[in-house]
Design brief:
The chain has 261 residues and is α/β, with parallel strands linked by helices. It folds into two domains: 55 residues, no CATH class; 188 residues, Uracil-DNA glycosylase-like domain (Uracil-DNA Glycosylase, subunit E, 3-Layer(aba) Sandwich). It contains eleven helices and eight strands. It starts with a strand and ends with a helix. It binds iron/sulfur cluster (SF4).
Length: 261
């Protein structure tokens, strides 16, 4: 039996809070007053009501703090605009050997963002990040967290495949990194997981960081917690370390869901 409660429209505080929380659950940051107040026909699920916090005068401030209704669309638009700006990029020498630019993909409002080093052969062919054997391992990790790839955002430090799968060189990283920085700035995830040494050092702008010493402990980038872990390609060669990455992923998931780990 459906448990939704019809919103009466009466101005009691409980209903007001429930409505605010209802719209927050739908992704609204502000009440869509200009687009038609829900009125008597709208419903507020009991589950939503139960989650309503005990707030009083701050209720209007709470409405301001709710995420923008159009945030996801707006972010998707900004990401599309960034991709268009990159165009058929020849800003660095990696352009010479690539077949496709691998921009990145996923949820523009993702709570978790994965950042790798750069595309490999499969990624270069398909123009999608992490779709080869290492990508399959990352996908399994995401699914083990009870998420799907479409729930997260996945990108790389460099968008074009380094020849022979070598590491990207410092000048290539320096040229391409502003793009991933802007992706982070648009998505603003709750947590970033860096995959491997190059992603860690490049994002943090610190070449002294070592993955074995850094993994499992949160760093911070632009106010966003960063969990360094191994690159899936490393885990294919060293499967015994998979449990370490799983432990790192659980910490990241906890931080995303509850703001702690
Ligand atoms: S790696 Fe980045 S900067 Fe270099 S050509 Fe590709 S998109 Fe442009």
């Amino acid at each position: 039996m459906r448990q939704d409660r019809h919103f009466s429209g009466k101005n009691d505080l409980g209903d007001a809070i429930a409505v605010l929380e209802y719209f927050r659950a739908l992704g609204f940051e502000r009440l869509p007053l200009g687009r038609g107040w829900p009125g008597k026909t709208s419903t507020v699920p009991d589950a939503v009501r139960r989650q309503a916090p005990d707030v009083s005068p701050g209720v209007c401030d709470s409405a301001e703090a709710i995420r923008p209704e159009a945030a996801a669309d707006e972010k998707a638009g900004l990401l599309s605009a960034l991709r268009a700006e990159i165009g058929d990029c020849t800003r660095c020498k990696l352009s010479k050997g690539r077949k496709n630019i691998v921009f990145g993909e996923g949820n523009s409002s993702a709570g978790m963002m994965f950042i790798g080093e750069g595309p490999g052969e499969d990624e270069d062919l398909q123009a999608r990040p992490f779709v080869g054997k290492a990508g399959l391992l990352l996908t399994r990790l995401i699914e083990k967290m009870e998420l799907q790839r479409k729930d997260v955002y996945i990108a790389n430090i460099v968008k074009c495949r380094p020849p022979g799968n070598r590491e990207p060189e410092p000048d290539e990283v320096a040229t391409c990194k502003p793009f991933v920085e802007r992706q982070v700035d648009i998505v603003r995830p709750s947590v970033i997981v860096t995959l491997g040494k190059v992603a860690l050092q490049s994002l943090m702008n610190n070449t002294t960081l070592r993955i074995t010493a850094s993994r499992g402990k949160f760093l911070e980038y632009q106010g966003i917690p960063v969990m360094p872990t191994f690159h899936p390609a490393y885990l294919l060669r060293n499967p015994a370390d998979k449990w370490k990455t799983w432990a790192d992923a659980q910490k990241a998931l906890e931080r995303m869901q509850h703001g702690r780990s």
